[in-house]
Amino acid sequence: MSWSGVSFRRPSQTSPHARLHRHRHERSMRMLHDTSDSIISIAAALGCCSRATFAAFQDADRQEPSDWRRRRR
Fold first, then answer.
1. Tens of pLDDT along the chain (73 residues)?
2. Residue 46 near residue 55, CB atoms below 8 Å
3. pTM of the model
4. Phi, psi at residue 22, to the nearest 5°?
């Protein structure tokens, strides 16, 4: 692990990758709930190149993005 990864992990107890993943997951949930944008548009806004990649952010909820959206509205 690089020195920068170690120094980042100490104060936050998470790796930079884990923190970025959590941030994208939280942002995706807000966008799914608050907007009527298509799932593909939300995925692109989050830097995902496909719907399948975007679905990986929803793993914590064990739901497809469209199912998550339907249940929350």
1. 555 555 555 566 778 888 887 888 888 889 999 999 998 888 888 887 777 777 766 666 677 888 888 887 6
2. no
3. 0.68
4. -65, -40
